[in-house]
Design brief:
The protein is α+β, with helices and mostly antiparallel strands and 557 residues long. The strands form three sheets. Strands 1-4-5-15-13-2 form a six-stranded antiparallel beta sheet. Strands 8-7-6-9-10-11 form a six-stranded mixed beta sheet, with helices on both faces. A hairpin with a 2-residue loop joins strand 4 and strand 5.
């Protein structure tokens, strides 16, 4: 595997002139087919873990003699510009999203624990960006995915650390409600890759009729061409396509055969119905046949999610991927297109298949996900990572977890190793915000928890963050490990870090976009101002792009 250095992704324009859009479409008619550290004077608390215990008609199938001629000596050049606009009126009526109810404020005296699964998906942010660019009111907004789209300057665990992550915490005044406090919890995974073995990757590509749009199959082909360029002779790539049926286009081709693989990708044509479940089954069979012990074995599904043949509901498909994940083959999902985007389907497959979900709206986004973030997209360093935050009634009267609405777990699930949770890749960070109402008066609580078995007022901690995870190699027993990180009074600051200011601005936009019941005084002007003042180094221009996105959202009225 050849890990290319991160490089700046080109800025994505928020509007595209009609002439440019038409020229892109005409060009396509002839085709064959992150954020860095920021400066801060505020004090944050960073803790490392303490030592503890199918091809459609016209496409080609690989049979050894019919492989396309290799062009491995040619540099990859996208054959058309981006962001692949579509002409005509916008009609998002065919898109499907799973809207989960947001978390309310809870009384610490009666509900001192908050438990949720880690989430490193980013699809919601790039999809929101696409919707705003089109002038469409955002749907399917998951605030945690907006926040986790960006990188933050959290300290990573030291080399050789016992646990593959560190935790950074910071507490400050809530920007949209000055009477409340806002606690930021950041989990930073190690950037060290867990294996030196090769990649065994199956590209599972939707070539059905619904993918016959400029920003679907053509963009898909060029996105995967970027990924192919990151591979070498130690890696193996298989390609399965599906429409009315599914076909094996390539079987265990060396990753160094860039030209062969790219030619296969660019030869694909769209047409027919969508039998995604059959394609998944074939992809899993291929991945298991070519399984690399100790390596990265993964199916990458690229689709608009519009399955219409065979098992097609989220429940049916998640049952399929749940049955397969014990094999050690993970599944990640890349969403493409618009109008009939089935976001709920794709998120469910990734969540239940031990993978991640990203939405690709431009080639720049593909580069971010498949090149700049290759390690975190492909290599898991902490499996089934769960967080349980224990609030201290002496300092906090009530609280609310912002986002993670479909990631909440029952408190008893935290200790249950049979309960699946999110997997975290190398270099990933997971950020969560809690809105806190300070304790206003003393009161008695009971129970056997850390803070409630003492007289209220004897601890000035805000909370303790408990993290439980499994080693991706199964460890000596396959059991999970728990680590805890107290968040003391020193975590509070009146001069929040640039990371806190920027991430809270992203969360504030999320509150507005979802029309949250708890948005209080949240406003776009405040969010823009804080974000613009917290750009930091911004080597990939993603924070600056967010400021432009807030402006575009505001212009929508």
């Amino acid at each position: 595997m050849n890990l290319a250095p991160r490089r700046p992704a080109p800025a994505v324009p928020l509007t595209v002139p009609l002439a440019a859009a038409l020229s892109v479409v005409l060009a396509l008619a002839g085709c064959t087919a992150q954020d860095g550290g920021s400066d801060s004077g505020a004090e944050t608390t960073t803790q490392t873990a303490p030592d503890t215990a199918t091809v459609p008609d016209g496409a080609q199938a690989l049979d050894g003699a019919s492989a396309p001629e290799s062009r491995s000596d040619q540099a990859f050049v996208p054959p058309y510009p981006e962001p692949y606009p579509e002409p005509g009126p916008v009609d998002p009526g065919g898109e499907e999203y799973d809207e989960s109810p947001e978390s309310p404020f809870l009384d610490v005296a009666t509900s001192p624990l908050s438990t949720f699964s880690a989430d490193v998906d980013t699809a919601s942010y790039s999809n929101l960006r696409r919707q705003v660019n089109q002038g469409v009111a955002p749907e399917g907004v998951r605030i945690e995915e907006l926040v986790n789209y960006f990188d933050y300057d959290y300290d990573a665990p030291a080399a050789g650390a016992e646990h593959p992550f560190s935790v950074t915490t910071e507490v400050a005044r809530a920007p949209w409600n000055p009477e409340h406090q806002l606690a930021m919890v950041g989990v930073q995974a190690t950037e060290a890759l867990p294996t030196s073995e090769g990649n065994n990757i199956v590209f599972l590509l939707d070539v059905s009729g619904s993918m016959d749009e400029p920003n679907k199959l053509p963009l898909l082909a060029e996105s995967f061409a970027l990924l192919v360029e990151q591979l070498d002779e130690r890696d193996r790539v298989s390609i399965v396509t599906y429409a009315g049926d599914n076909r094996v286009v390539a079987d265990s081709v060396p990753g160094s055969e860039h030209g062969v693989l790219v030619d296969h990708l660019r030869s694909l044509r769209a047409g027919g119905s969508t039998g995604g479940a059959a394609g998944l089954t074939t992809a899993y069979e291929l991945a298991e046949k070519n399984f690399v012990e100790g390596g990265n074995n993964r199916v990458i599904l690229a689709t608009d999610g519009d399955f219409n043949v065979g098992p097609s509901s989220p429940a049916e498909l998640t049952t399929l991927v749940e049955a397969e994940r014990a094999s050690g083959v993970y599944v990640s999902v890349l969403g493409f297109g618009m109008y009939n985007l089935k976001d709920s389907m794709m998120e469910a497959i990734a969540d239940h298949g031990n993978g991640n979900y990203a939405y690709i709206d431009t080639l720049a986004e593909a580069r971010k996900v498949l090149v700049d973030e290759f390690g975190s997209t492909m290599f898991v360093v902490a499996q089934d990572l769960k967080l349980q935050v224990e609030l201290n009634p002496a300092a906090v009267g009530s609280y609310r977890l912002i986002g993670y609405d479909n990631r909440r777990l029952a408190d008893e699930d935290f200790d249950d190793d049979t309960k699946d949770a999110g997997d975290v890749g190398a270099g990933h960070s997971v950020t969560a915000f809690y809105e806190l109402v300070p304790a206003s008066s003393d009161g008695d609580t009971d129970g056997g928890l850390k803070y409630s078995d003492r007289e209220v007022g004897t601890s000035d901690d805000f909370m303790t963050v408990h993290v439980r995870y499994k080693s991706p190699d199964g460890g000596p027993s396959g059991a999970s490990t728990e680590v805890e990180f107290p968040v003391g009074a020193a975590a509070y600051t009146t001069t929040p870090s640039a990371d806190f200011e920027f991430a809270s601005a992203v969360a504030e936009l999320g509150l507005i976009a979802t029309d949250s019941e708890y948005q209080a005084q949240a406003n776009l002007d405040g969010a823009r101002s804080r974000a613009a003042g917290a750009l930091g180094a911004d080597p990939y221009g993603l924070r600056a792009e967010f400021v432009d996105l807030v402006d575009a959202y505001r212009e929508m009225g």
